[in-house]
């Protein structure tokens, strides 16, 4: 039976995340239907969720205003996997160090916005990521970094700063895994995350 994946579509690389989820599902032998989430009522039907980047204050305002935020929290509380990337990582964190961001608090780490510079400072780096055999070609664009980690586990660092973490069913990255043809981060978040409830458990 097909899995249902939701991409929070209020901002960011929605179609790129959808394509990456589909590639990762095929690699792991699953069928997946991807739905875009712009309003409440969709996330509760999803086995997997992705929250793309964009502008963290805007994402925070929209997901709370549309009633999506409590559904994301409930998704995680039920043990279902969530991948939060770049600004999505900021919004999902326990502390964004910005009063304009109403954090979801679904993983225990604080985040520093634009820690690796502005748009002009964008770069790609080969990351050693726990759970992956070979370096991952990570794309950093106005990337945050993780300041302090509570119960979350660090999966990758760059320049001695954490840039990927896992806390239960949640994986957060400071980089944009949707901007590469390499779908291993999506696979790690959704199909190889031992801390998450197996997605087929609810789909069958």
Protein topology:
Layout: E1 3-8, H1 14-27, E2 32-37, E3 48-51, H2 56-65, H3 69-77, E4 82-85, H4 87-92, E5 109-112, E6 123-127, E7 136-140, E8 145-149, E9 153-158, E10 161-167, E11 170-173, H5 184-190, H6 200-203
Parallel strand pairs: 1-2, 1-3, 3-4, 4-11
Antiparallel strand pairs: 5-8, 6-7, 9-10, 10-11
Give me a quick take on this structure:
The chain has helices spanning 14-27, 56-65, 69-77, 87-92, 184-190, 200-203, and strands at residues 3-8, 32-37, 48-51, 82-85, 109-112, 123-127, 136-140, 145-149, 153-158, 161-167, 170-173. By secondary structure, it is α/β, with parallel strands linked by helices.
Summarize this structure as a short list of keywords or feature phrases.
single chain; about 200 residues; alpha/beta; Rossmann fold; seven-stranded mixed beta sheet; two-stranded antiparallel sheet; 6 helices
Task: Walk me through the structure.
The protein is α/β, with parallel strands linked by helices and 204 residues long. The protein has one domain: Class I glutamine amidotransferase (GATase) domain (Rossmann fold, 3-Layer(aba) Sandwich), CATH 3.40.50.880. The protein contains six helices and eleven strands. It has helices at residues 14-27, 56-65, 69-77, 87-92, 184-190, 200-203; strands at 3-8, 32-37, 48-51, 82-85, 109-112, 123-127, 136-140, 145-149, 153-158, 161-167, 170-173. A seven-stranded mixed beta sheet has the order 2-1-3-4-11-10-9, with helices on both faces. It has a two-stranded antiparallel sheet with strand order 5-8. Strands 6-7 form a two-stranded antiparallel sheet. Helix 1 links the parallel strand 1 (3-8) and strand 2 (32-37). Helix 1 (14-27) crosses helix 5 (184-190). The chain starts with a strand and ends with a helix. 52% of the residues are buried. The mean pLDDT is 91.
């Amino acid at each position: 039976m097909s899995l249902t994946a939701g991409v929070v579509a209020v901002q960011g690389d929605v179609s790129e995340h959808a394509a990456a989820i589909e590639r990762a599902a095929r690699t792991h032998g699953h069928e997946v239907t991807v739905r875009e989430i712009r309003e409440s009522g969709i996330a509760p039907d999803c086995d997997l969720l992705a929250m793309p980047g964009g502008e963290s204050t805007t994402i925070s305002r929209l997901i709370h205003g549309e009633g999506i935020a409590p559904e994301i929290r409930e998704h995680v509380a039920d043990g279902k996997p969530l991948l939060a990337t770049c600004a999505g990582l900021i919004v999902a964190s326990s502390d964004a160090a910005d009063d304009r961001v109403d954090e979801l608090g679904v993983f225990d780490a604080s985040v520093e916005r634009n820690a690796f510079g502005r748009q002009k400072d964008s770069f790609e780096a080969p990351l050693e990521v726990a759970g992956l055999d070979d370096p991952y070609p990570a794309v950093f664009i106005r990337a945050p970094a993780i300041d302090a980690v509570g119960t979350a586990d660090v999966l990758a660092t760059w320049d001695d700063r954490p840039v990927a973490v896992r806390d239960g069913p949640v994986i957060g990255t400071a980089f944009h895994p949707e901007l590469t043809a390499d779908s291993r981060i999506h696979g790690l978040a959704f199909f190889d995350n031992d801390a998450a409830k197996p997605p087929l458990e609810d789909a069958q």
